[in-house]
Specification:
294 residues, two-stranded antiparallel sheet, globular
Length: 294
């Protein structure tokens, strides 16, 4: 499916994307030509078994075409099963999984990648990420990632929780530039320098925990802005990320919330309100903080 590229505007040094041409089916082309949906479902902390299967099924029925899992989540097999049982052609669903910390190093990473592919139950995954920048083993691990890409076990490879120093180290020696850097992002944790560094080097930015794991959904500023657009606070937060050109993967196991989170393509946050959201940064990490990881 060919999608009209969104218009990009520069405001205060930050790139914002016009949503006029975007829909739940819109995709962005990664640096190796593979296309990834701009919006998807994360299944972190979603219990394995029927709970994950129901969540993925609900997401696919609502139009989601990106599902993000990881070995550490323990639900890779459930994601694969739900995709198979959906009846949607495999090529129409983008599946991401991740290498866990205990599997770093060349041979362990190769074995782990092959194991994840086997658990998901398809010949390959669409995106395979290093989950965390484990010190001392990153170079050997990335060589294994490149091998998995070459061998067709993954259509694209990337990283997660990498800060600028980690990316600089990787770019200095790697043959393949990461296609994606998945990090925690929200108005309360808006790492502008990191986002711009990634965009400069052709690395797509993907946001996990864009809803702050629920901890800031009662913020009065967010509630006021959401009411202005007749939207919920989660919808406002997801829309904010999309308008920054960020791939959004909100997590929910409840079908009604999964459907609600997808209703973000019929409004656009105005410039002054985007700036207000941008100004809320307080370095709020709701998951891990990789800033000082050596």
């Amino acid at each position: 499916m060919n999608v009209t590229p969104p218009k990009v505007q520069e405001t205060g040094g930050i790139r914002r994307v016009s949503m006029a041409a975007l829909s739940i089916g819109s995709k962005v082309k990664l640096n190796n030509g593979v296309e990834i949906p701009r919006f998807g479902l994360g299944v972190w902390q979603t219990p394995s078994g029927p709970t994950t299967q129901r969540a993925v099924t609900a997401a696919l029925e609502a139009g989601y075409r990106l599902i993000d899992t990881a070995k550490m989540y323990g639900n890779e097999a459930d994601v694969g099963q739900a995709v198979r049982e959906s009846g949607i052609p495999r090529d129409d669903v983008f599946i991401t999984t991740k290498l866990w910390n205990s599997d770093h190093g060349y041979e362990p990473a190769l074995k782990a990648g092959e194991g994840s592919v086997k658990r998901i139950g398809f010949p390959s995954v669409d995106l395979y990420l290093i989950h965390w920048p484990v010190s001392g083993l990153r170079k050997d691990t990335w060589r294994a990632m490149e091998r998995l890409l070459k061998d067709g076990k993954a259509r694209a490879i990337g990283v997660s929780n990498y800060m600028i120093p980690h990316l600089e180290e990787l770019l200095a020696t790697s043959k393949v530039v990461p296609a994606v850097n998945q990090v925690e992002l929200s108005p309360f944790l808006f790492s502008k320098d990191l986002v711009e560094f990634c965009k400069k080097h052709g690395i797509a930015v993907e946001a996990y925990s864009p809803l702050t794991k629920g901890h800031r959904l009662g913020d009065e500023r967010l509630k006021t802005l959401a009411a202005k657009y007749r939207k919920t606070v989660p919808q406002l937060l997801i829309r904010w990320g999309l308008q920054h050109g960020i791939i959004e993967i909100p997590k929910s196991a409840r079908p009604e919330h999964i459907r609600e989170n997808a209703r973000v393509f019929d409004f656009e946050i105005r410039g002054e309100d985007m700036r207000a959201l941008d100004s809320m940064g307080e370095d709020l990490h709701m998951a891990w903080d990789p800033t000082d990881e050596p």
